[in-house]
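The authors assume throughout that readers already know how a fold can be written as discrete tokens. For illustration, here is how one protein appears when written out as sequence plus structure tokens.
>
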Amino acid sequence: AMKINQDTVLRGKKVTLVPYTAAHVPRYHEWMQSEELQRLTASEPLSLEQEHQMQRSWRDDADKCTFIVLDSGRWPGQAEENSMVGDVNLFLTNTEDPTLAEIEIMIAEPSCRGRGFGKEATLLMMAYGVRKLGITKFEAKIGQENEASICMFKKLHFKEVAVSSIFQEVTLRLDVSDQERQWLLEQTNHVEEKSYAELKQPAGLLDT
């Protein structure tokens, strides 16, 4: 099962990726009430209880890997719920090919958009997928009107491979050659991998 990252923290300059836990669900649920985010993520609004079920499936399903994106400037130090800016996911969509993953990034906090948070979170997740999960091909499916996201993936060397007029989405793809792998690891060589359990302890003391 995809519990591989349940104690993993990936700390970058702007963002820190932490496992998606039950404690994150209320804030996440609040975000997903936004019609704009529902449209951008092509998702239906769920009840809080359904969102909790979803979080458990993210933790337990073997074909999904997810991190919550926190603002590195705020956490550790502030409560995680107040430091959350979005999430980043990998789906292993093809049972025949475990080296292919679909990647999704959402920067839900409007004040955090356009600041490079999404780019760094995506790079961290890609490097994690390549190093820990054996991923060699990434796909991203993005709504045609979401130009900022399409543009970001192109900066990360993804190429547009398909456009679906029915779903109004663009599919972008990156094959991780040795050269791309080298680039990806260079882009993320500042990242520290830490234990979530250890980092969480002191933060709890600060919240009192």
Observations:
- The CA atoms of residues 162 and 171 lie 5 Å apart.
